[in-house]
């Protein structure tokens, strides 16, 4: 039995000592260097290997999307960059990593209270690991995005610096905040606009308002109008192959019922991972139709379905997205996770790091119709989700947006990791920012070469690309 009177009073001091000690073993300046690749490393082969087990007919779409430009390549090349980061120096200051913290994986969505919040919105690669791995991914994406906007190296550096400086500042503030204040911290976009909108340029304010309006327009009713057509049998999801393929067109006629019943089985199994109130709410909807949907850039080829459900009547639609989860690209470098299911890993990582997660987030494991074990996670298809149009940014907008992403990443890391140790490691100077800026600018050139390697592989016929 624990003697309450002798229970130690917690203190952040031991963690701060750990953080300062990490500066000796992994100096902050060490992060500036981009490690050389092993002899024979082939980024295209990494992508080809990653395609094993995916829907083969969709892989050309993935290659086509990645080949579009250098930023698109970076978005889809989480596995390539994971290998590069793993070759470099790493601290022992672990957090729940997003695993793919590039600029376009931050965005706006509705909280359960129906307020627009800004947060990380993709966790397919989430894994426990060194905090700086996420920071490097974000920093590199900012520099690559800046180059795609034809910004100078100085402007690229300043954009990265803005994000990492905000990350360091936020971590330091979270290190002196109470535990509950850290846990409940979030960026309410509407409140942000009402309190800070006056400090934004007219263009920045206009684009923020546009993103908010776009998010507010993305809900089940909007998805219904966009994705569904009326037939004699009732509402059915429209075909837009290969990006959206209804089950009726995806399988042989004799298999349609079994595939639909399979997805309904996934739905019923997934319900068991939801809280009781969500199970009750979901039970008020009736599954109507389903289709395979292509999503993202790096995710293309993984099995993803949208499920149309109706509540009260035909004017009460609700969509769920059922997405396949595979091992994180970080697993081969950081070891297996404590979760036996990749779907559970994705859900837990999101719930730990997001301030307000999708209330319908859950997972399910099941063999597919061929007997192959598959892992899925489930969430709402649309719930006010929207991301910034990075391609339209001005230099000042990129810096502002990058800083917001830096704060958001710091909040996620403060929730899941030792915020006292990380703050102590980062310190009061800009040493970490300067190192990350140097790393990011070096990665621009490496990413450019990798993108060209994919373009050349497409031209030679090594891989096939399509752009539907």
List the helices and strands and how they pair.
Elements: H1 13-25, H2 43-50, H3 59-67, H4 70-76, H5 78-86, E1 94-97, E2 106-110, E3 116-120, E4 127-130, H6 131-148, H7 153-174, H8 179-184, E5 187-188, H9 189-196, H10 202-216, H11 220-227, E6 228-231, E7 234-237, E8 244-246, H12 247-250, H13 256-271, H14 276-282, E9 286-293, E10 304-310, E11 317-324, H15 331-334, H16 342-353, E12 362-367, E13 373-380, H17 395-416, H18 419-426, H19 431-460
Antiparallel strand pairs: 1-4, 2-3, 3-5, 6-7, 8-9, 9-10, 10-11, 11-13, 12-13
Helix pairs in contact: 1-18, 3-4, 4-6, 6-7, 6-17, 6-19, 7-17, 7-18, 7-19
Unreliable residue stretches: 194-200
Q: Determine Rg (CA atoms, Å).
A: 23 Å
Helix content: 40-55%
Strand count, sense and barrel status of the largest sheet are: 6 strands, antiparallel
Backbone structural class: alpha+beta
Number of strand segments: 13
Q: Which range does the strand content fall in? A: 5-15%
- End-to-end separation in angstroms reads 65 Å
Give the helix tally: 19
Strand order of the largest sheet: 8-9-10-11-13-12
- Tally of separate domains: 2
The overall pLDDT average reads 89
- Assembly annotation: single chain
How would you sum up the global shape?
globular
Describe the protein:
The structure is a single chain. This protein is an alpha+beta fold and 468 residues long. The chain has a 6-stranded antiparallel β-sheet with strand order 8-9-10-11-13-12, with helices on both faces. 48% of the residues lie in helices and 15% in strands. It has 19 helices and 13 strands. The protein has 2 domains: 12-215 and 389-460, no CATH class; 220-380, no CATH class. Strand 2 (106-110) and strand 3 (116-120) form a beta hairpin.
């Amino acid at each position: 039995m624990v003697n309450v009177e002798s229970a130690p009073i917690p203190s952040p001091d031991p963690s701060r000592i750990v953080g300062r000690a990490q500066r000796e073993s992994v100096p902050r300046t060490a992060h500036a260097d981009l490690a050389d690749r092993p002899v024979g490393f082939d980024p295209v082969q990494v992508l080809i290997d990653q395609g094993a087990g995916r829907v083969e007919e969709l892989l050309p779409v993935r290659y086509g999307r990645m080949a579009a430009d250098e930023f698109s390549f970076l978005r889809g090349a989480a596995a390539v960059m994971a290998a590069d980061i793993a070759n470099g120096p790493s601290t022992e200051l672990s957090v729940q990593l997003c695993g793919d913290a590039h600029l376009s994986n931050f965005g706006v969505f509705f909280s359960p209270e129906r307020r627009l919040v800004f947060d990380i919105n993709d966790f397919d690669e989430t894994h426990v690991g060194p905090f700086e791995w996420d920071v490097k991914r974000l920093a590199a994406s900012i520099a690559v995005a800046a180059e795609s906007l034809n910004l100078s190296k100085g402007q690229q550096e300043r954009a990265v610096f803005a994000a990492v400086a905000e990350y360091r500042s936020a971590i330091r503030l979270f290190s002196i905040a109470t535990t509950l204040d850290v846990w409940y911290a979030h960026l309410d976009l509407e409140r942000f606009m009402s309190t800070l909108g006056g400090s934004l340029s007219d263009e920045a304010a206009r684009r923020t308002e546009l993103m908010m309006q776009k998010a507010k327009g993305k809900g089940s009713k909007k998805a219904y109008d966009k994705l569904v057509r009326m037939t004699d049998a009732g509402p059915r999801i429209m075909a837009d192959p290969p990006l959206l393929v209804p089950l009726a067109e995806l399988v042989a006629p004799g298999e349609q019922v079994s595939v639909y019943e399979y997805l309904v089985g996934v739905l019923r199994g997934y319900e068991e991972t939801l809280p009781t109130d969500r199970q009750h709410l979901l039970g008020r909807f009736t599954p109507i139709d389903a289709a395979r949907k292509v999503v993202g850039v790096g995710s293309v080829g993984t099995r993803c379905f949208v499920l149309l459900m109706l509540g009260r009547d035909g004017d009460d639609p609700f969509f769920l997205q059922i997405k396949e989860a595979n091992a994180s690209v970080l697993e081969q470098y950081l070891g297996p996770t404590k979760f036996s299911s990749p779907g559970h890993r994705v859900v837990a990582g999101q719930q730990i790091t997001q301030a307000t997660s999708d209330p319908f987030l859950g997972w399910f494991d099941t063999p597919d119709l061929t007997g192959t074990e598959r892992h899925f996670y489930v969430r709402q298809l649309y719930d006010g989700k929207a991301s910034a149009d990075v391609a339209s940014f001005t230099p000042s907008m990129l810096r502002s947006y990058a800083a917001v992403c830096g704060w958001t990443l710091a909040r996620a890391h403060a929730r899941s990791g030792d915020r006292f140790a990380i703050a102590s490691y980062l310190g009061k100077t800009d040493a970490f920012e300067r190192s990350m800026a140097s790393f990011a600018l070096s990665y621009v050139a490496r990413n450019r070469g990798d993108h060209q390697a994919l373009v050349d592989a497409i031209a030679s016929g090594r891989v096939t690309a399509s752009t539907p």
